[in-house]
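Entry:
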Amino acid sequence: MTSNISFIRSAQLADVDYAYASRVPSDMDLLFLAGACPLNEKGEVPHPQDYALQAKLCVENTKEVLKESGASLKDVVYTRVLVASHQQSDLVTAWEAIRKEFGDHDVPSTLSGVTVLGYTDQLVEIEAVAAIKTVQNQRGRSRGSF
């Protein structure tokens, strides 16, 4: 995790595999990522019945956007995971695949089951917010580090 971002856990709430909140210092820029879809380089949704593989591809696409923005998964301060299913087990499958990709970076997250997502055969989508250190440009105005 980057500079002074902190995750808040609670001794009064259930012990879960994610933080309950994150705190971002005011000198950091926030990046709001559009929902990462499980699209391959051809714009197709592969693995039409596989929640885990689609979740992994969503994380890979998230990592690429973060990289192009000067960030990484360690800079993510919040995610929302959408899973097209009415079966809790499908949500758990997607969640476990995503958590594995994030490793010990137990970012606060919301996991929701939805009826349908935007692309044909799409099962998973990840929205993310990341924070990166603000840098000063040559004229003294602040901008993100990307």
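Residues 83 and 91 are 6 Å apart (CA to CA).
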